[in-house]
Amino acid sequence: xxxxxxxxxxxxxxxxxxxxxxxxxxxxxxxxxxxxxxxxxxxxxxxxxxxxxxxxxxxxxxxxxxxxxxxxxxxxxxxxxxxxxxxxxxxxxxxxxxxxxxxxxxxxxxxxxxxxxxxxxxxxxxxxxxxxxxxxxxxxxxxxxxxxxxxxxxxxxxxxx
Length: 161
What we know:
Layout: E1 9-13, E2 26-30, H1 31-43, H2 56-65, H3 69-99, H4 105-129
Antiparallel strand pairs: 1-2
């Protein structure tokens, strides 16, 4: 079979003799989902994978408690780690929007732009998070600052008549 697993749907039906007992219902689901159900049932595992990282709400709460640069960078890095997943999700949603004839073309374009902005934000925040561990810069004394000299106002001649 040449079809990828994500494109295969398994359909189940009951035996004809017992169909009435089950209301003549059939069911089906993507094969990958059925495999997760069977695997979870066989080994006693949860159906949904448990998140390894804190939710954004938890990170927002931790940000109020972060006092030093290391704690602040840890919170920011944990948020930054989730942004590539968000970009991938937005890319997938843009693909869905492109393939769905009911969705306007502008929606797919907006989702693609949002994914690009998310990737750029990831890069910018990665650079910004490094600033929390950098030593503070010494302030420049006022005597060493360059002095701004006023520029003379341009002189204009009155217009000839």
